[in-house]
Amino acid sequence: MYEQFRARAETVGAEVHRFKTRDEALDFVLLFIRNEGIQDAPQSCAVWADGPFLNGIDREQLRGKLPGLRFDVSRETAADARIGISEAGFAVTDTGSLVSDQTDVSQRLVSTLPAIHIALIGTDRILPDKAALFTRINPATSRYIAFITGPSRTADIERVLTIGVHGPKRLVIVFVDGMGGVNI
């Protein structure tokens, strides 16, 4: 299902990568944000929302290696960030969409305000379609479910397409084999 998801997601403008281990995925993310010129300056930082991926990782050591990498998510830090990093709950193959429980406002902020959104997800969280997804979502515990399909895009009445007006200009999806994920 990964290849089908990847094809659909890339069709709508997402960038999709896959890694065997969390360490490989972390190395990719750190290199990516370094190559994007992240620094401790307005509109140049990266903000990373808390999640299971970060468990056991020394965040202070990462901040020391990459000035401009922040873990304190607020409306101000997310609005000031160039890159936002979060975790997704599921990937839906038939639409190439990510699905996240964004009840925690920090997840919403890092996935919508920065120009680039990096979404981390376990490869085992890929589902074939929305019907399979709806058997996994628990409305009693999930108050804010977000479907993310490619970078933000809109078109005016003359059909002039604009990317990134209402959200990120780039969506980078990072799959990790065996990572698992959070239940939504």
Automatic annotation (TrEMBL):
Domain LUD span(s) in chain numbering: 3-176
Leader sequence residues: none
Name of the molecule in the record: L-lactate dehydrogenase complex protein LldG
Coiled-coil spans in chain: none
Pfam families membership: LUD_dom (PF02589)
Superkingdom assignment: Bacteria
InterPro entries in the cross-refs: FTHF_cligase-like_sf, LUD_dom, NagB/RpiA_transferase-like
